Amino acid sequence: ILMEFKYRGNEVPFGQRLAMVRMIDDFTAQGKWSMLLICEHDVVDPEQDIDASKATVRRIYYKGEWRKPKVGFTNVKACIDQFIKHVKSKE
Q: Using CB atoms within 10 A of its CB, is residue 52 exposed (0-12), middle (13-18) or buried (19+)?
């Protein structure tokens, strides 16, 4: 699981997004379960810790396509828990 966190409203630059997508595509091509989460937080102070588990998932890149998180799985923890559950159901 690859994640990128940006402050609310900031976008992931094209080159950075492309590099992460290529990594996920390579992992997937090798038969590895993988996904990319683009997440946002609202912590203004750069010295303050960000609780990643509570960050909002904006977009998910999985199996070659971008998706919006399903209702109820919009925070990082819920999204990852759902992904793990999905992977275990396929094994």
A: middle
Tens-digit pLDDT profile for residues 45-88: 989 999 999 999 999 999 999 999 988 789 999 999 999 999 99
Instruction: Please state whether the predicted TM-score (pTM) of the whole model is above 0.90.
Output: yes
Side-chain-side CA neighbours of 65 within 13 Å: the count stands at 3
43 in Cβ contact with 7 (< 8 Å) = yes
**Longest CA pairwise span in the chain (Å):** 42
Query: Rounded to whole angstroms, how far apart are CA atoms 75 and 83?
Result: 12
Cα–Cα distance between 69 and 52 in angstroms, integer?
16
